[in-house]
Amino acid sequence: MRRHPVLPAIVAAVAALVLAGCTDGGSAAPSDDETGPMTAFFEDMGGSMNEEDIEEQQRRVEEIVATCMAEEGFEYTPAEPMTGAVNSDDMPEWDSKEYAVQYGYGATTSDELYGGGEDYVDPNADYIASMSEGEQTAFYEALYGISPEVDPEADPEAEVEYNWEEAGCQGRASHEVYEQDQIWEDPAVQDLMDEMNTEYENLADDPALREAQEEWAACIAEAGFDFATPDEAQQSIYDEVNVLWEAVAPTDPEAEVDPEAPMAEPDPAAMAELKEKELALAAADYECKESSGYLEAQKAANLELETRLWEKYGEQLEAVAAKSTPSE
Questions:
Q1: What is the pTM of this model?
Q2: What are the domain boundaries of the chain?
Q3: Quick one: which of 72, 60, 68, 6 has its CA closest to 179?
């Protein structure tokens, strides 16, 4: 339910940019001791993903939705951007020791990170409440599209392919802001990304990183935990969070839900106990990454891999970027 995909740092960064970036054009910025050429390229193509940029993208989505809904005959008040962590100016860097000690991996501490669980206020609530049932149905169909009818004979586990053209004004807006004209929609880039992902998956085979990982495992064992890799340690907490949420999930997904009923929450005592475990594990994890040399080995392996990938794919990526960049 709240599973956190664990990826190497550079893969996570590239994935975030691929999903949320907006094409600015241009070629890769020179890499340095901290930033490899692949990261530089995707940052250049995707733009900075700081909070201001994210909020601006959300505003653009809401403005497009409002225009689209007006075309459909409805009023729509754009919602304010959902900001990230509260007190973000005082928030420690996510990959710092301070963050690990205070927030762990962000699994049981999400309320502290993202606003303390305050309820979202829909600026369109009063307008929607003034409508008849039929008008409300039409409003939501215009906003989100028409839900496809479920075939009772279909495989419930089958993946449903998303099509933005069938997702109403929200689909149209999200496509325009996050997807349209992005270089990763080019089939050539998709093929390259598949090849590069395979390379990233083999990053753990780097001898220096493997040696540091073994030292990390010995260190974390001395701290009282039994994990082979940092990714495994982090994922274990998210898996336990999932178990707590699944315990309060409806047993019948087709049962009618009372919209006025409060949302079921996991057992507070169990969540508090897991939070204590998360903070202890995250702090030990960071300490072991430092003492084992894992952080430095991972950074060195990432930079070496990015340099190799850029030598192999850089010209192709720049060519696709130049082709997709709007002319002045």
A1: 0.65
A2: 9-150+158-250+259-324
A3: 60
